[in-house]
Amino acid sequence: MTYRDICNALAAVGIESPSDDAALLIEHFCGVERAALVLCRERDFESEALACAVKKRAEHYPLQYILGRWGFYDSDLAVAEGVLIPRADTELLVEQAIKQLPHGARFADIGCGSGCISVSILRARPDTVAVAVDISPTARALTVQNAENAGVRSRLEVVNGDMREEALWGRIGELDAVISNPPYIPTDDITTLAPELAFEPTLALDGGRDGLDFYRALIQNSVSALKQGGFMLFECGVGQTADIAAIAADSGYESEIYFDIENRDRAIRILLPSPKKERDNEAGNI
After folding, report:
1. CB 50 within 8 A of CB 26
2. CB–CB of 181/118 below 8 Å?
3. With contact defined as beta carbons under 8 Å apart, do 132 and 109 qualify?
4. Which band of pLDDT confidence, cut at 50, 70 and 90, is reported for residue 275?
5. For residues 272 and 253, is the Cβ–Cβ distance under 8 A?
6. 148 neighbors 114 (Cβ within 8 angstroms)
7. d(Cα 23, Cα 26) in Å, to the nearest integer?
């Protein structure tokens, strides 16, 4: 099976980036770097493991699961079936958290999945500590593995919990920030997604009828764990930020929306009022 054969096989079934995927598979299973493929495009790679991987990828099984690792922000993370694959869209959330967390902050990564958010923040901000929460034992184990590999395990507590349950927040303790990439795809849209997403856990994708169920729960429940002046920072589906800001406003919170490099609204920060602002508001009401 040559590089050209693999490209053609993947292109024939609608894989979006057949040449990139072919190069990554050959590098992973045969040890031939992409730059060297220019000189051996017609070489027959006699590897049963490679042939099996190409067959799986042609069935739209995610490339990341086949490789078992994926780059995110400045880390190379372990990934595994049963856990949401880290995506570049989430890097905006990490960038904002790194900028905005106060010195010495303690934050929570809710629905941590692979730990991509908390591990990346802890690597960039050695003054911080974190709690990573997930209902999935596979996700928690993967988070521990990635934290150990990144050298941040001593600053990360990993907790079993459902973000929708009020009792969780009493167990977590006081926080400066709650950070999350929660499930946000409307239930009826799940079946219309790219075929690769059928292999990822529905629990990490399905955000309820309108995609906002987890935001409602987080905004309502996480406040009990946040310090005065703390904030929530969430990734959102494109076009959802206005509705999430309205949910926050109903509870008296202000919001700030962040856009990615393609000018899509992809993250929102929800701010709890500081003690000074509350005093000013009370004075204004007298």
Report:
1. yes
2. no
3. yes
4. low
5. yes
6. no
7. 5
